[in-house]
Amino acid sequence: EVQLLESGGGLVQPGGSLRLSCSASGFTFSSYAMTWVRQAPGKGLEWVSAISGDGFWIYYADSVKGRFTISRDNSKNTLNLQMSNLRAEDTAVYYCAKNFATGYAYYEYWGRGTLVTVSS
Amino acid sequence: EIVLTQSPGTLSLSPGERATLSCRTSQSVNSDYLAWYQQKPGQAPRLLLYGASNRATGIPDRFSGSGSGTDFTLTISRLEPEDFAVYYCQHYTTSTVTFGGGTKVEIK
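YS: structure for the whole thing
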C-alpha cells in the first residue's frame, strides 16, 4: 500500500525558514517523480515543485523559485522541501504527491498534508 | 502559462441530479495531460480522471469526462451524497502544473 507522510510544518515568522519532509513507502521510491502541492486556507490547489526519480530534473513554480529547494534521498525514501525567506502568502497545507508514472504528472497518491503558518 | 478556468464556481444540486462541470484552458492543450480531482473538507485531493476521460482506480462509472482543445467537462451522472465536494481540473506540461480554481458542488 502506498503511503506518504509529511512532517515538519509549523509556525514560522516572516523571513524565516522551514524544512518539510515526506516519508514514502509501498512503492519503489526512486522510480517515481515526486511533487509538492500546497493549499492556502480556504483556497484552491497550487503546484509548488517537482523532482524526477533520480533527482536530476527539478521544477518550481514562479512563486517559490529562488526561495524553496526540493530534494530527495532515495536511500531513505524521503522527499524534502527546504523553504526560506518565507512570506505570509506561503501559509498553506503542503501536500506531497507521487507522480502517476514517468512523464505523467497527475497524482493518484497524496499525503495528508502538513500545515505551514507564516506569521509574526 | 496556461490558465485553467472552471465554471460555475458553485453548483447547487440535489442528490440524484446530473452535474456538469466545465474547465476551459487559455490555449489548446493535449487532452492526455488533463486530469480531474475531487476534494472533501480536511482531506487530500482524490484523482478522478486522467487523460481527460480515463477513470482512476476505484472511481465509479457515474463520473465521466470529455472534451478537447480548450473545453473539458466532468459529468457526474447521478449525484450521490458523497459526491458533494470541490472539484479541480489540472493540466501539466514537462515543467509545470496548473490547477483550475475549483467548482464546489453543494447540496441544494
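YS: worth flagging: The two ends of chain B are 36 Å apart (CA to CA).
IM: good catch. Also The interface with chain A takes residues 33, 35, 37, 39, 44-47, 50, 56-57, 88, 90, 92, 95-102 of chain B (CB under 8 Å).
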